[in-house]
Amino acid sequence: MLPTPQPDAYRRGAVEFRGPGRPTETSETRLLADQPDTSWLHTDTWRVLRIQSEFVEGFGALAELGPAVSVFGSARTPADDPSYAIGVDVGRELAERGLAAITGGGPGQMEAVCRGANEAGGIACGLGIELPHEQALNPWVNLGIYFRYFFVRKTMFIKYAQAFIVLPGGFGTLDELFEAVTLVQTRKIKSFPIVLIGTSFWSGLVEWIRERLIAEGMVGERDVDLFYVCDSAAEAITWIESKWTATS
Ligand SMILES: C/C(=C\CNc1ncnc2c1ncn2[C@@H]1O[C@H](COP(=O)(O)O)[C@@H](O)[C@H]1O)CO
């Protein structure tokens, strides 16, 4: 015998209410209702969801990118600076070898690398970042994604690249370089070649690492070998490929 239907039963999703606890309006009615208090928009609870959505968008856009190298460098390098031409070479060399170039998508070296990759028919990926001043993706980007948060964007630089190339740069570039160096040093990521281009530019830092950090036991003796320093795009990428071959 079938049970008697409950005349006052009310279903909300998986839950059924009977009797006094019965809701007076549907969830959708509440969803669509006007909500004059918008203070929740500025709470960490809501921010967590926004952060989550940045990861979702980033993963969705980059998961099928294929082999790629993240390239960092100064946002301030003018197009007539000799190191801008090296940035263009990096983008072109990557494209010619079927590797996507992932950059910050901004001006300076980011533009140079995107330009080289784009002109050579490759993928010039720009991970834009919200900054206090208006910042647009450079015109050579052909796959652009905007991020609110540096840390989400940094995850993309690491997760979707198999190596890093670092051109001369300032604090932003150093931050990105040492993020990668620390991840390799602590073995959070494996076989991740890191190349610095510009022996003259980087020599002071390398010397300081040897003379202070190693000498004073702040890092291990072999930690300075976590990156390779050279002067050209071709040498950088040839070294990266040799590392990939050695670990495959
Ligand atoms: C300062 C200027 C523009 C800043 N615009 C940027 N857009 C995208 N990414 C940026 C920007 N500035 C820094 N970055 C990231 O850090 C690295 C460069 O920083 P640095 O301090 O200049 O070395 C770079 O790799 C980006 O990922 C002027 O127009």
UniProtKB/TrEMBL annotation:
A GO molecular-function annotation: hydrolase activity
EC number of this enzyme: 3.2.2.n1
Top-level taxon of the source organism: Bacteria
Gene Ontology CC entries for this record: cytosol
Coiled coil: none
Family label: Belongs to the LOG family.
Protein name: Cytokinin riboside 5'-monophosphate phosphoribohydrolase
Species per Swiss-Prot/TrEMBL record: Nanchangia anserum
Lineage: Bacteria, Bacillati, Actinomycetota, Actinomycetes, Actinomycetales
